[in-house]
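Task 17 of the worksheet. Students: predict the tertiary structure of the chain below and write it out as structure tokens. Keep your answer in the requested format; marks are given for formatting as well as content.
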Amino acid sequence: MGERKREDVTMTSSTQKPEEVRSKRRKELEADDTEGLQLSSTDTADPVLSDGLQSLYKPESLEQLLNEMNKEIKSLLAKYAHILSERAAMDASYVHELDGILKEARTLENHLKQKKESLKQRFAMIANTLQS
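Model answer:
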């Protein structure tokens, strides 16, 4: 019988807990919403921040900013063009070097072919001399 009372107590407490949790959660959400509203109102009320934003939208400062950015972009493009031209020159030198290597390889190949033919002729002469 004591066990049955414990079961009833746990059943009633477990049915009450989700409702309590829901109400607590609602209160937390409401508190978060009011904090969010307070933060957004203090953000716009900050005079330093609004002055900074307004100074960005002045035509003179915007023009100056665009000119500075334009100079920086031109500088970066000039550096990039310089790097590309250096790489192109390096690639050209590699092509020239490879052409020299291929020319030398062809010369060696022709020389070896001539040596091979020369040796064939000498072996043929030696074979003919031995057969006679």
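Marker's comment: The radius of gyration is 45 Å. DSSP finds three helices and no strands in the chain.
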